Predict the structure of FAD-binding oxidoreductase.
Amino acid sequence: MSTHETLAARVRGPVFAPGDEGYDDERTGFQTNDPHRPSVIVGAEDAGDVRAAVEYAAENRLPVAVQNTGHGLPLAAEGGLLISTRRMTGLRITPAAEAGEAGTPAEAGTAWIEAGVRWGQVVPEAAAHGLAPLSGSSPGVGAVSYVLGGGVGLMSRMYGNAADHVRSIDVVTADARPRHVTPDSDPDLFWALLGGRANFGVVTSLEIGLVPVTRLYGGGLYFDAGLIAGVMETWRTWTAALPDEMTSSIALMPVPALPVFPEPLRGRHVAHVRIAYVGDAAEGERLIEPLRAVGPRLIDNVRDMPYTESGTIHNEPPVPMAYHATNFALDDLDAGTVQGLLDLAGPGAPDRAIVEIRQLGGALAQAPAVPNAVGNRDAGYLVGVLSRLGPEIDADAVHALHGRAGDLLDKRSSGRLLNFLFGANATSEQVRASYDAAAYRRLRELKAVHDPSNLFRLNHNIPPAT
Ligand SMILES: Cc1cc2nc3c(=O)[nH]c(=O)nc-3n(C[C@H](O)[C@H](O)[C@H](O)COP(=O)(O)OP(=O)(O)OC[C@H]3O[C@@H](n4cnc5c(N)ncnc54)[C@H](O)[C@@H]3O)c2cc1C
């Protein structure tokens, strides 16, 4: 028996080695640039497979990577063991009457979600019970990793980080022990997992709180190139005095002339304002009047909608792609920063990139009922810069543009948000900047307790304290 056959005998799901049929498909996710190249992959069917895979990795001193959808690839594994969770799609919704007392006052039920579940699976199931998860812009993103990384969602100014609504975590730690972690059973590990993400184990399932939201006033306002500067400045000043019920963002986007994009946008440079208002539609409409007053929209689909249509707000294309991304948390957004972003990637700029600014604040800035390690809670805005990569794109120009983004924003930035460090290029400095200094020190100390050999290092790594 080869070593990997030994592993295959210990798990229910498939095991792939390089060259096997299915290996390439299993290791490749949404991010197609520089995927994992593990020496073995376990396609886990259940928590038992995850436990067996971690045990095998520990016995053979193989570092462990985890992947569900591949939206957040932090570092391409070279060798090691990859646990692929995409087959673990168990989901159970429990309305409030059965969910018990624990949880924040805003919650009206819970969802138990396994490691391979995407938001697109949770949203309709929760809606059938009059509930919604604190999901984000894209239904294709994996729910578990999103929550473990913080989770800035469509309603986050109203309800805060998704991580703040976790009730329990099932995880396999580096000693290959399955543990059910609650704030009472192990407050330190509970704290570290929510924010520390893959550093403390492979999470096999989570129990999260759901909120009683069925409808939103939401959608997108798309403005053509000539109105971009005006709408950026209007959005900036407009966000200064909004109720927490309003969560919005703006993206500057060169839209490729491809059928996957709506016809009126193809081949144009546009500003896309995304609106999610949890409240009365008439009040939402009144609130966004200043944005509509900027001028005609190429598309305006802001409307009263069921939460099941919330994926249309950002309308991110579901097609896998290669990309390089950077993010910067800012305390506030001044006119000079907006002008700098227009110079960097506006319609007149020499190079193309997507620039997104999300308004944070509101409930995101509040301390959670149960503490967790999610950092940079005080930030007012998040700026993301994303460039497509590919054979037809000059990689040097992309790196130069991201260098200029750093020149513009590093000095204004208070840190990073871990969830938005994706693109297989996160540096250790960026990981450190995703936490408050004391939290980062504590994470390192807890890493030394729970994973002293850094078995879980093919990730946004937090090295154990020495
Ligand atoms: C198009 C797009 C839209 C996004 N929108 C939002 C948004 O609105 N709000 C937001 O907060 N974030 C958003 N993100 C970021 C996203 O939440 C993170 O990248 C998240 O990590 C993706 O999880 P995944 O399972 O889809 O991806 P994966 O690449 O499969 O996972 C990312 C990493 O998480 C870790 N991980 C995965 N599964 C587990 C597990 N079971 N246990 C422990 N660790 C695990 C691994 O280190 C893995 O490399 C977006 C990303 C993209 C590309």
